Automatic annotation (TrEMBL):
Name of the protein: DgsA anti-repressor MtfA
Pfam families: Peptidase_M90 (PF06167)
GO MF, any single term: metallopeptidase activity
InterPro entries in the cross-refs: MetalloPept_cat_dom_sf, MtfA_fam, MtfA_N
Alphabetized CDD domains for the sequence: Peptidase_M90-like
Gene Ontology cellular-component annotations: cytosol
């Protein structure tokens, strides 16, 4: 067996051990947070809600949440809503939880990066296994669930795409055929944005393939009906890639 095989198994079982030792059970109050502030969960049927809660408990049991920049205590609301966003993006997989990204860092507002000398709303650091978000910007993304702008989805989309390139997490993300279909369509849409022919996505989606994927997932979850109507082929490719269709999930509630 190769060293990478043993590394993958070790990382996976470390995650499993954390889940077993630090099992997090959702309280009634925390489930109310989901019902009141997370539309994706609220629109699910009861069967899918049970699956969602089980997966959320695993995510909360396996991830570390750290406050920075003045956040001395990470609240239950922060953990539930950020964790729920991760569950939403990965809901099509029964066990996927982005094991490589073990820590979620929360700043109160935009934060200054000494590395590139700019302020950030969020970022993903694969080297250190971090997903970083500004809580203020995260909440603003949740406030309007139909505008296609959602920081939480955006950063977790980056993490998902990067995780697909990491073979040491013991997880299988994208089906190769589904990924190939999406990759054939994405450059065409990026060029349409640049030329002004595609006005469905905001201009930042044309910066590079990573930004396009993150912006596309924001609309996939927040504006699925419009997405399917305007860009049916691209929408269907994401349905296959993410193994879920938000429109169907909503209809089957």
């Amino acid at each position: 067996m190769s060293r990478s095989f043993y590394l993958r198994r070790t990382n996976w079982w470390m995650e499993e051990l954390r889940v077993l030792l630090f099992q997090r059970k959702l309280t009634i109050e925390e489930i109310k947070i989901l019902e009141n502030h997370f539309p994706y969960y609220r629109h699910l049927g009861e069967k899918h809600k049970i699956q969602f809660r089980k997966k959320l408990q695993i995510v909360l049991s396996s991830k570390k949440f750290q406050g920075r920049g003045g956040i001395t205590e990470v609240t239950s609301e922060m953990e539930i809503l950020i964790g729920a966003t991760l569950v939403m993006v990965t809901f099509g997989w029964s066990r996927l939880r982005l094991a490589h990204f073990h820590t979620i860092v929360i700043y109160p507002n935009t934060y200054y990066s000494t590395l590139n000398k700019v302020y950030h709303r969020g970022e993903v650091n694969p080297k250190h296994g971090l997903i970083v978000v500004s809580w203020k910007c995260f909440v603003e993304g949740l406030a309007d669930g139909k505008d296609g702008v959602n920081l939480g989805i955006h950063e977790i989309a980056h993490a998902l795409k990067l995780a697909n390139q990491i073979d040491s997490d013991g997880e299988k993300e994208f089906d190769q055929q589904a990924w190939a279909t999406y990759k054939n369509l994405a450059p065409l849409e990026i060029q349409k944005i640049i030329s002004g022919q595609n006005r469905f996505f905001r201009e930042s989606a044309s910066l590079n393939e990573h930004e396009f994927f993150a912006v596309a997932l924001e609309s996939f979850f927040e504006r699925p009906e419009d997405f399917q109507k305007d860009l049916p082929e691209l929408y269907d490719s994401l349905v296959m890639l993410l193994r879920q269709n938000p429109i169907v999930l909503k209809k089957n509630q």
